[in-house]
Amino acid sequence: MRANLEETGQAAFSFTTQAEGFWSAAEVWIKKPHVVNKRLCGVKESEYEAVCSEDLGSCLARLTGTHGHELSELFPFIHVYTVDSGIKAEESWCVGVRTIIPKVEPNCNGNVWVKTSSKELNLHPYFLFIILYVIIYLFINISDLIGQAVTFLPIEETREGHVNLKKSNIYKIQLEENTDECVLRLHALSPDQWFSDGVAYPKLSWLTAELLPKLARWAIENKSSEFKSTLSLIPVEKYSVLYQQLKNKYKEMVKVWPEVTDPEKFVFEDVAIATYLLVLWAEERAEKGVTSRQSFVDLGCGNGLLVHILNNEGHPGKGIDVRKRKIWDLYGPNTHLEEKAITPSASFLFPETDWLIGNHSDELTPWIPVIAARSSYSCRYFVLPCCFFDFCGKYQRRHCKKTQYREYIDFISEVSGACGFQTDEDCLRIPSTKRVCLIGRSRSYEEPEGELAEARRTDYIRGRQVSYTSFTNVTQKDHSRHNHHGDGQEIPEPGSEWGSGFQPREKTETVRNCAALPRDLVDGVVLKVARALLELTAEAGEEGKNSSWKDTNNWHAGGSLSIREVAELLDQSTLQTLKKECGGLQTLLKNSHQVFRVEGGRVHIRDWRNGGPVRVNSKPKSQTSGALKTRLCWFHTHHPHGCPLSTEDCLFAHGEDDLRPSTRPLKKLRS
């Protein structure tokens, strides 16, 4: 149920939820509006204060700079209900202020001024005023009717500190509960006078069509994140300004990117990480009262773009990686990169370096807090974990109630604490599912206690290595093999500083995307899975079988199976081979794109009549002319009903006579 907000001043949705769900949804819009409004970078919040009804007017007058009689006109709107004199309402109020921070686009006519004490960030002259929202939380209990509401009072503050309450843009989100259902309402005080710039002041139509349905859905789901809000350790307004500056400065890297990786993702991801570090380091310098830029070493620097940006922005430092990338040659002499295998040892300590960086550093990740702690008492670290590694091999899960990612972040935080760091956790804004970083900026012990701290550190590392070796010996039959995944590692001797379990990755990257698997193994898996799917009826799916489908003239697409059910079809030897590949069985099935469609964790036979590139004459984008008819059609050869497409329409060859030689250049393996 929804009303027309622009005409009536309110819109409503009916659904089932509880008050906790409403507040969970409202907090997303209050604290993280950029999740919904992509033109915002975030908000800066003040402390919220609880006030009684008698003090609400004076509190709002102080925050908004308006007179009491002006605010008194708003009180009927702010209250959830107009209560009859015979009913006593129990009210509790909570009031705070948030500052809207828009994304800064170059050459735009922005109308938001971002306060900042940093003189290193160049604020654009078109920032005119701050947009504040006074957030009023109201909890009210009237008989058996419970109401919750959040009211937004927008205020403009000029550079000179003058404030102006925009009465035309006041709105309220309200939850009404009774025994039958919940109603989520959105009220606008003056819909006929509403002003919108699409950024700080959303359109009424957007609030109705976009925000309210999302709030209703979030209220029902009532999900809480395992991780902190993004950019919780740095000023969001400074991040927003600097990110846009660096994004425009380095966007040309996308055009010259020589690697096989996606330039759009990797360039702007490294720009975002560099922005975070630069703001974090600027705040650190301001706090310590120093001006010299922090030095750094990026361990496992990969493409080196993060190093390139940090060097260009004035920070002395270098990156080290086991393998040189093509793009290194494009950076120039001012970007310092070294091709070298890194082994945690006394040879890889950095006593003169301020910060160590681990950006998706894989097997080095748990060692970076250790290397930082042993380099010097003042050395700090930043690590962005990705792949899950322990000190001497792949990380072994121990807590089934946590997600694997949460468990691994907790493990690295535990390592950091064992190394003597006070550890902070934050979440970056990068195009990646792995975006939680850990930061060690200070120690939990005084510098004279360094020897005792080192003893604790050594005991912890050795304990992990012994535990890992014991665990792998129990869970792996062939634990005597010694390879870079850590199987059957030697237990380090007591007193050994680093242990003997760690081995760096090979200089030549091993292809592990199932492309190098034996052809007969792949063909055998594809045939076995396809036959199992064809034995399932499309209607009954995994529940039933159809014995008469072979006798029908209709082309049969079979049913579907989950990845787990598919795995149960295969022998242990095949599964062990697939486990060594990135993505394992699921990668093999997705690589077999001609035969299978993998969606939502389930495997289906692909029906080329329903979407997908067909028609040779139309030259679909997914198939260049050099690849047409260069492979045999699996369905023509193996499906009982043959291919659902005609010879002319199918991209693949229907028999040897239809096969053409490939004219596509051979792909070079990544190195």
UniProtKB/TrEMBL annotation:
It is found in: Cytoplasm. GO terms for biological process: tRNA methylation. It catalyses: uridine(44) in tRNA(Ser) + S-adenosyl-L-methionine = 2'-O-methyluridine(44) in tRNA(Ser) + S-adenosyl-L-homocysteine + H(+). The keyword RNA-binding does not apply. GO terms for cellular component: cytoplasm. It comes from the Eukaryota. Keywords: Cytoplasm, Membrane, Metal-binding, Methyltransferase, S-adenosyl-L-methionine, Transferase, Transmembrane, Transmembrane helix, tRNA processing, Zinc, Zinc-finger. The keyword tRNA processing applies. A zinc finger (C3H1-type) spans 627-657. Belongs to the TRM44 family. This is tRNA (uracil-O(2)-)-methyltransferase. The gene is TRMT44.
